[in-house]
Amino acid sequence: MKKKKDEKKNAKYECMDGDYTIKYDIRRFPPVHSDAISTVSSIQNGLCLSGSKDKSVILFDFHIGSTVEKWKHDKEVTKTTYDPKSDTFYSCSRDTTIKQWSRNNKNPVNTYNGHFMVVTGIAVNSDGERLCSGSRDNSLRIWDTKTAQCINQNCISRNLVTHIKWAKDSHLVAQTGEDKELRIWDARTLSVTVTFPKKQHIQMWCDWSEDQNSCLTCSNGFGGNGCEATLWDLRNAKPVSEFKGHQESCCSAIFAQSSMCDRPCILTSSNDSTIKVWDYVTSECLSTMPLPASGPVTSLALFPDAR
C-alpha cells in the first residue's frame, strides 16, 4: 500500500495495482468518558453505545456530537450490546451484573444477577427474547429477557470467557476464552457443538460471517508475536487463514462489506493504536489506519450502512 504524502486527517490509500481505492476520514469529538473506553456497539447510523472503565454506559449521537443517554454501573463496563427489536440496551461489568437499559430512563429496566466474577461477554438473539452471557467464572448463561431470570447455564473448567457473538437468526453462539479456544454453542441446550484447535495466544474477540460458515477471532500478544486475526471454517473446524501485521494485542476483529473498499474485507483493531483493513480472500493488508495518541484501540463497530 502507498499513502499519499501530506495527508493527515483525511487519508487516501491506493493499491499497488491501482484497481481500487480505499478512503477514510477521521472525525474527532470531545471526550465523553473520563477513562478508557472498553467497548463500542453500533445502534443505528450515527448512534453508538460505549462502555468505559469510568463505570458509565453512554449513548452518543455522532450527527450532533453529543451524549443522548448516560447510565452507570458500580465498576468498569466491559461489554455492551443492543436489541433493535425492542430498542433495548445491555451492558455488563466488573461488578458481576448485566443491566438492561431503555431511553429516557436513568435506572436499569432489569439487573441480571448470577455470575460471581466479572462478566466479559453478552449477546442477544435476533428476536430479543434470550440473552447469552459469559464470565471469568468459567460459565455461560442463557437469560429470559422478559424476566431477567437465568434459564440455563454451563461451566467449563478454565474457560475464562473473553467475548460472545450470537449468530443472526440462529441458535448458534460463538465464544472465545483465555484458554485460547473458539467454541460454538447451541443456545437451546447450552452445549458445545463445535470446538477448534487451540491457538498459541488468548483469543480476544469473535465474529460471524454473513453466511455463518466462518468465524473470525483475534489474539493477544506483544512485539508482533501473536497479535493476529484468524479465519475459521465451521464445516471442517479448521483455520483457513491468518491476518498478521499488528505489533501489539489484536483487540477486536469484524467482518465488513463497507464503502471503504469494493470487496468483502476484515477490520481489526489493536493495542498498537491502529486499525487494519484486510482482504477477506487473500489475507492481504489493504490499509493501516493509525490513530496517533489514541492509545489501545479496544473495540470496533460498523454502522448498518457500513460507512
UniProtKB/TrEMBL annotation:
SUPFAM superfamilies in alphabetical order: WD40 repeat-like
WD repeats mapped onto the chain: 73-111, 112-153, 161-195, 266-288
Keywords: Repeat, WD repeat
Protein's UniProt name: DgyrCDS7853
Record organism: Dimorphilus gyrociliatus
